[in-house]
Amino acid sequence: MILDYKNSSIHYTVEGKGDPIILLHGFLETIDMWQNVIADFSETHQIICIDLLGHGKTDCIGYVHTMEAMADAVLAVLEHLEIKNAHVIGHSMGGYVALALADKKPDLFKGLCLMNSTYKADDKARKLIRTRASKMAQENYDVLITLSFANLFTPESKDTYNSAYDNALQLALQTPLQGYIAAQEGMKLRPNRFEVLKNLKCQKLIIIGKKDSLIDSCQLIKEIKNTDIEFVEFSEGHMSHIENESDLPYNLLRFVENLHP
């Protein structure tokens, strides 16, 4: 489905009936990453997947896509569908967008799951990496994407899940250069949203990959101690929907049904 938005198009899908679940993909991903989650939950829930700005079949709307701008695009879809309350699951950059949405519209949330994501802002080193990557992307895009994408997986996972890895990489390579740079620039600008997450009045879950090189899991676990933010730690890296595919459905079910161990 396509929604006209600011002289551009937002692509989204809706499957199933029941309480809504909003799925927001990460950087260099599309709604295709959620295929297994849709299969697990569409019989009991309404699953809404949205291609974020500059990704998949959704257009770019500028040269910087802030997380707030992406959240506004998501909100436009939800308002079009008349969604008042939902569980929101965001992978990586999708988690940043979900937090920006929570900052704008906290009453929307029945639950928020940050999957291989964080509420933290980029530090100086990470911002510099993004700036350098954007410059490199203009010179040799395919090589940059291939090298950076490899860092999202543990070496063992790349071999074990070779087919899924290759499929995800091919989708990543389809991200337009403008979409890549606009997202990198937008992620550099995002603030720390720990207080937003802590103060959100709903079920909250962070899914952590023990070998995730992009997330400081030890620091994250320390900071959420003594809050009502739950976490679960998986054995592998940043791509839990591939690397921990068998563990993910149970934990997401526990999240959306507000179940406790």
Automatic annotation (TrEMBL):
The lineage of its organism: Bacteria, Pseudomonadati, Bacteroidota, Flavobacteriia, Flavobacteriales. Keywords: Hydrolase. Residues 20-244 form the AB hydrolase-1 domain. GO terms for molecular function: hydrolase activity. Transmembrane segments: none annotated. This is Alpha/beta hydrolase. Pfam families: Abhydrolase_1 (PF00561). The keyword Hydrolase applies. PANTHER family: MONOACYLGLYCEROL LIPASE.
